[in-house]
Amino acid sequence: MPMLRFLPLMLCLAVAPVLAAGAITGTATVIDGDTIEIHGERIRMQGIDAPESRQLCKKDGKRYLCGKDAANALAGKIGRQTVACEPHETDKYGRTVATCRAGGADLGQWMVGQGHALAYRKYSMAYVADEAAAKTAKRGIWAGTFENPSNWRHRPHAKGEGKSERRRNAWKLTRKPAWVRGYYRHDGTYVRGHFRWR
Questions:
Q1: Is residue 44 within 8 Å of residue 34, measured between CB atoms?
Q2: Other beta carbons less than 10 A from residue 70's beta carbon
Q3: How far apart are CA 118 and CA 159, in angstroms?
Q4: Total domain count for the chain?
Q5: Does residue 115 come out as left (phi exceeding 0), alpha (psi in the -120 to 50 range) or beta?
Q6: Which of 85, 121, 150, 177 has the fewest CB atoms within 10 Å of its CB?
Q7: Based on the domain organization, do 104 and 174 belong to the same domain?
Q8: Parallel, antiparallel, or unpaired for β 18-20 and 23-26?
Q9: To 5 degrees, how large is the angle CA 150–CA 37–CA 56?
């Protein structure tokens, strides 16, 4: 049974990402505006930083989920096209950092050029000119106001702590309970002992 010797190899090729000269190729699922997944492999697009999924931006005096808009824009650009990603490295979260293309278009460049992401200067200067063009034309997030996604991620709410929770935690840190003994008021009524925050 010579073919049985090759069965494990054939099974691996069937479930693994299609690799050609190191490229990861296949149908992509959009995770957010700068991250996709191909065959279960999480891929962070090189040189761009898109607003986070829960991040709010402002346009025409109204707030909107710009991170969600960025993800939808990327999904719309990819459509049903096959995506090919050229890996560069692995980041600290275990994701592959890569330049990805669909239909011949550099997806990172397109996202920055349309104003759905920023050029991530910390890691690459490749899309700085595209960002400048988007800013001048007031495309995407440049049509209003927004916080740099990198700064937004370092704020408490980005770690899951909501505004009301932050207020409660701050209150707990600055105030302490104290026992107040029972006492009589001037009108003769008695107030029982109780805890009071100070």
A1: yes
A2: 29
A3: 21
A4: 2
A5: left
A6: 177
A7: no
A8: antiparallel
A9: 35
The pLDDT tens digits for 133-178 are 999 999 999 999 999 999 999 887 655 544 554 455 444 444 445 5
Is 57 a residue whose pLDDT tops 90?
A: yes
pTM of the full structure: 0.70
Token duo for residue 129: 């000119």
Indicate whether 140 and 167 sit together in one domain. no
The least confident of 86-90, 140-144, 185-189, 193-197 is 193-197
The domain in which residue 59 lies consists of 2-160
Residues 6+ apart with CB under 8 A from 186: none
H or E element that contains 71: helix 66-78
How far apart are alpha carbons 40 and 77 in whole angstroms? 20
- Count of C-beta atoms within a 10 Å radius of residue 142: 20
> Residue 100's Cα: distance from chain center in Å?
17
Whichever domain contains 46, its CATH number is 2.40.50.90
d(CA 151, CA 51): 10
CB-CB neighbours of 134 under 10 Å: 24
84 contacts 101 by C-beta, under 8 angstroms: yes
59 shares a domain with 38: yes
